[in-house]
Amino acid sequence: MSISQKLSDALTILTALDLPRAQQNERSALCLLAICGMTPDSSWKEATAPLIGITPIMDWARNHFQKDYAPNTRETVRRQTMHQFVDAGIALYNPDEPGRPVNSPKAVYQISPEALSLVRCYGSSQWDISLKGFFEVKDSLADRYAKERNMSQVPVSLPSGQKIQLSPGAHSELIKDIIEKFAPRYAPGSILVYAGDTGYKWGYFDEPLLNNLGVQVDSHGKMPDVVLHYPPKNWLLLVESVTSHGPVDGKRHEELARLFAGSTAGLVYVTAFPNRAIMGRYLGEIAWETEVWVADAPSHLIHFNGERFLGPYS
Fold first, then answer.
1. Residues 178-216 pLDDT 10s
2. In a domain, 314, yes or no
3. Residue 159 lies in a domain
4. Nearest Cα residue to 20 out of 9, 28, 31, 8
């Protein structure tokens, strides 16, 4: 009875908070219980604010509320419940380290202080007053937390003068260096076609330009991290940003060659590293007839054999 009562309480709270119907369900109720540190025998006034990730949330549901979620439901929990909790000002995302990359396995959530104060009043005479107070600040809460998250994003200035924002993390910092430091030195006047983002796969994509160059990709195509078009020589520079894995090795070279097979522009393959220490880990894997650029020595380019320096091969 205590399990069903706690689930019922959590659903009542979510309904009172005016969450969309898609989040008024058992999954979201269990997520609320987990981020409040609630067990079947806890009282709401004992709610806490643990830092907790998606897998631990699912473990909490299994260990305390006898609900066993399959591992492949992680994305459903994240995208269909926790995203909405964050947008509503109910939960915070990575409050301990706002700059943590969005694809980090260390990502955590925490109930917001305002929502914690509210749920601790559930079932008491202060509930209605607290609920009214929460709604008075709810919109500003969501806006404030959204601004705080945006402050940790990586700003990138494009050759055109346009500015974009990428998700925080070392990977995005290297993409920023590729666009702002590599491109002006080795492809001055180039046009950014694509820049990946760990949070949103298509961080920036000029699809019409790529189509005009004879290349069409769908959502399943594994794009390089940065694609630049260099009109003076009609080159497409395909750049991989390597902070933890994935240089342009032989296998990746073949994948990119197939993906861009229709290109009317010559293909140039580049691997970018943040520093030579990381580059050293992958020297044995880098494909021949490719280029290597290191962000902490931006005026130098390393050519891996072949008959020409920085140019396409037929």
1. 999 999 999 998 999 999 876 554 578 889 999 999 998
2. no
3. yes
4. 28
